[in-house]
Amino acid sequence: MKTHIPTTIDYTTGDYQTTSEDILSRFTPVSLAQMEDMALLRRIDTKYVLSKAQLYQALSHLTTAYHTLEVEGRRQQQYETLYFDTPDFALYRQHHDGWRSRYKVRSRVYADSGLAFLEVKHKTNQNITVKHRVQTPELVTKIGEWAEDFLYTCFPYPSTALTVRLQNAFRRITLVSTHDIERVTLDLGLRFAANGARLPLPGIAIAEVKQAAFSLRSEFVGQMRALGVRPLRFSKYCIGVAHLYDQVKANRFKLQQLYLDKLSNHRDTEGTEKNSVFSVSPW
After folding, report:
1. CATH assignment of 20-274?
2. Phi first, then psi: what are they for 92, rounded to 5°?
3. Rounded to two decimals, what is the model's pTM?
4. Cα(167)–Cα(41) distance, rounded to whole angstroms?
5. Residues 6+ apart with CB under 8 A from 138
6. Where are the domains of the chain?
7. What does the alpha-carbon distance between residue 60 and residue 8 come to, in Å, rounded to a whole number?
């Protein structure tokens, strides 16, 4: 029997305890195959950083506006990512220094489906995100000859100097609009690792609204406005590097770091993963 959750509940108080599974059970599921038309490899992204309590409050009002991705019976999927950069963090510095056109290179495994990809994300000077990817048998830990051939087609810099600089893992909920070309990804339980050091972000959710063209008609955006949550420029890669590497400049990300510190007072006690979640040991 599905759990009924009244929309009048205030999830920000301690008087009501719920879980993401309770709320997600109210959404209609969709499969990966049904999502093929929503790949949105060229899109406009709008990001929000919020507490898990705020996210649950928003989701309780969106059960008819979105479907949710279900893979092997799970409505939260485990992701693991390795980010590549140069020894002097050239790609990180592009973002920190405010380059309008910038790149990320990463290897990502979708644990529940068993799929893995080597990916390049390009943020253009028109604020459009363009993603290129090639499927791989597993996480890529080193840029070899075949990877160089792929990167040559979509990455404008020499790839031979790229090495793994950061590792992260998280749980993702994916929402698909019932009437617009829009996806919303919700990342929870984020953990970062680099050089043996680890950084958890408990109680925090990273939401990303992905649209073919920005539209205020998005029900999720409407819920963020209702909760007083404003869009925030946020890069998981940059935040992880800024926290775990002392030698890099991080002035540009101080606002995000202060906001994370404020939200981290909401402890993530639901579904906390152990260090063993990283299938590739921190280097």
Report:
1. 2.40.320.10
2. -60, -45
3. 0.86
4. 23
5. 109, 116
6. 20-274
7. 9
